[in-house]
Amino acid sequence: MNANNLVAVVGDDFPQAMIDDLRQHGINTEGLEIRKGEKTFFWSGKYHNDMNSRDTVEVQLNVMGDFDPIIPESYQDCQYLMLGNTSPAVQGLVIDRLHNRPKLIVLDTMNLWIEIANADLLNLLKRVDVLVLNDEEARMLTHEYSLVKAAAKIQGMGPKTVIIKKGEHGALLFGEGKIFFAPALPLEEVFDPTGAGDTFAGGFIGYIAKTDDASFDNMKRAIIYGSAMASFCVEKFGTERIMNLTQEEIQARVSQFVSLSAFGLE
Amino acid sequence: MNANNLVAVVGDDFPQAMIDDLRQHGINTEGLEIRKGEKTFFWSGKYHNDMNSRDTVEVQLNVMGDFDPIIPESYQDCQYLMLGNTSPAVQGLVIDRLHNRPKLIVLDTMNLWIEIANADLLNLLKRVDVLVLNDEEARMLTHEYSLVKAAAKIQGMGPKTVIIKKGEHGALLFGEGKIFFAPALPLEEVFDPTGAGDTFAGGFIGYIAKTDDASFDNMKRAIIYGSAMASFCVEKFGTERIMNLTQEEIQARVSQFVSLSAFGLE
Questions:
Q1: How far apart are CA B200 and CA A20, in angstroms?
Q2: pLDDT at A3 > cutoff 50
Q3: How confident is the model at residue B1 (pLDDT cuts 50, 70, 90)?
Q4: How does strand B104-108 pair with strand B178-182?
Q5: Residues B109 and B85 sit within 8 Å (Cβ to Cβ)
């Protein structure tokens, strides 16, 4: 199995216990910069009744404002690269600083960058294999309402594979002229949707990396695992549920997705 | 195969060619009342950009205002009854006038009846097996935002099986403590969504009746057929696409649903 290498920046207000937790889960944190006397990125917001839309109450970029990603020498064998949501300029620097191109580069982005860093984002799109974004962002980026048309336009911008997340309505995977749809698990309660999209992306790339297979058919399974991970994320506040998951719980959740979508005509 | 028996009322303005078309498709129209000198029900509306929401421009109840359903003697062997969307009082009369209870009664309804005929609807719910409604209506009927909770409440009102339609986001089937999710086919263009919900319900009951199997597993397949039929409905104006469908086209569309949702972990 590949190492799981983290590149990130926090301030010295970031809880050491959380970093220890990551290490205990097998995450290499050599590329995590901890800036003395500075503060970690901060966001707070309010969710609406449908849990799919939210208003930002406060954002403090703090250390994120001039993030200069560090790629330790031990990271240079990276095969699968997940570029988490930050400015396209910083995401591009990570690719620049890897001596060899990874087998697969997955990019996450958001409405903010589509608006304020559109040219940077369009340049970056030419360099990645998979773009992950939500339905609203796909429409904003392409000016197409139909997600089928939006995905085709995005494929023309660079990424051969496009994943469009629809929150509680599941996710669509477009690639090789095919479409795959992964449902979201219908839940009685959504406690806190913060980080569900990131967890989805993490579950996706984690499955691809672990199985070392970036074929379209394996991406279908990866999206199911991503959806399963996201369904745990929303059950408790912050990272609480995710940090305490067992492999058995994950497999049981994936089985729920099977019974949710199999209809016996396959 | 059972006969397909229609109960309905129209005015003498209703095109005879459409009635002939129904007969050519094997529909028994003995229970279709044609009222001389009166006008057929009329609706016009405007769809919004997302094709899921619409505003009514004009409704004329006309002959629907005092619809008194006729059940011909030849209909008395009815095994599978689909109560299309009309007032709960009229829907109840159809059940009253059948000497033997059908094996399965499926009820379609809408926000209007939840608002203006709530008591009638609640009484009728005790007499049916399956309720078909959309997400907004399920929330309106139960005052629950979570569709999982809404479905459980509806099951407490009578129907053991609940189908919640989510338009372009697919449909959920709740029954036997299980949940099944059927995706909608992602489309490049939606030409006219009018009647898509009715076509879905028709495809559903048609598949159940043809296979003579109302088990939960067969209902999953029936919902896929319903979704396939609805995906045709929206491609052209009115009933044009549906009236000219072949069995081969339907099977090919169902295969698209298989490739859309099968992920090889089943």
A1: 53
A2: yes
A3: very low
A4: unpaired
A5: yes
Angle at B103 between CA B99 and CA B104, to 5 degrees: 110
For B32: left if phi > 0, alpha if psi spans -120 to 50, otherwise beta; the answer is: beta
Sorting pLDDT into bands at 50, 70 and 90, what band is B53?
confident
Of A53, A54, A11, A57, nearest to A32 by C-alpha is: A11
| Average pLDDT across chain A, whole number | 94
Q: Which two tokens stand for residue B6?
A: 């229609």
Q: Hey, of A140, A155, A181, A227, which one would you mutate to test binding to chain B, going by the most B CBs within 10 A of its CB?
A: A181
Residue type at position B184: A
B7 token code pair: 């109960």
User: Nearest C-alpha of chain B: how many angstroms from A45?
Assistant: 21
- Could you give the ipTM of this predicted complex? 0.88
Report chain A residues whose CB lies below 8 A from the CB of B143: none
- Residue B196, amino acid: A
- Phi then psi dihedrals of residue B185, to 5 deg: -75, 125
Tell me, what's the pLDDT at B264? 87
Closest residue by Cα to residue B71 from B50, B47, B96, B42 = B96
Contact list, B264 vs chain A (CB under 8 Å): 217, 220-221
Cβ atoms of A28 and A8 within 8 Å: the answer is no
Q: Note whether A148 contacts B186, CB cutoff 8 Å.
A: yes
According to DSSP, the β-strands at B130-134 and B161-165 are parallel
Q: Are A243 and A21 a contacting pair, CB within 8 Å?
A: yes
Helix (H) or strand (E) holding B219: helix B216-233
CA B134/CA A163 separation, integer angstroms = 26
Q: How far is CA B52 from CA A100, A191, B136, B143, in A?
A: 47, 27, 11, 21
Nearest CB to B146: which of A181, A187, A220?
A187
Return the structure tokens found at A257: 């997705």
* Alpha carbons A118 and A120: distance in angstroms, whole number: 6
As a whole number of angstroms, the distance between CA B262 and CA A264 comes to 10
Q: For chain A, what percent of residues have pLDDT higher than 90?
A: 88
Q: Which of B48, B49, B147, B181 best tests the A interface by mutation, with the highest count of A CBs <10 A?
A: B181
Please give the pLDDT value at position B51.
64
